[in-house]
């Protein structure tokens, strides 16, 4: 039985606005990000979502709290949905991470992980979803690594192609069917 997945990234952060690659650091939503998270809730609260799965990093948790707090929809935190761990480069300029990201498809960032490891980690959550959520509609709030895992698992896109591609953020997110 398939699972409908609604995917959205965590909302806009102070680091996003300042051009910083937060990685495994917690991050904080900006004022604009809190407004975007509220709009996410307006779009999704009555969208048939049975549960929300979110990265346990603060910026994703804050997005879920604003969007779904008080709705009765369970919000489940899972570390596997975290962004790629840039290791020693967490909190560095995003332009530097983007510039040489293809060098780290299989080679871990110093003190961190590779993009393929991050995709494999997030894919672990996707593999576990059918045990409880088959036939349901769930939402995932994550990061770029989460998006790459969804595209890799559901559409079969090669990790190297996903890392090389330019990511285009969508305010209304993406929808997937996991069979």
Automatic annotation (TrEMBL):
InterPro entries: His_Pase_superF_clade-1 (IPR013078), His_PPase_superfam (IPR029033), Phosphogly_mut1 (IPR005952). Keywords: Glycolysis, Isomerase. The keyword Isomerase applies. Its EC number is 5.4.2.11. The keyword Isomerase applies. It is an enzyme of class 5 (isomerase). Pfam families: His_Phos_1. It comes from the Bacteria. Signal peptide: none annotated. PANTHER family: PHOSPHOGLYCERATE MUTASE. Belongs to the phosphoglycerate mutase family. BPG-dependent PGAM subfamily. This is phosphoglycerate mutase (2,3-diphosphoglycerate-dependent). It comes from Luedemannella flava.
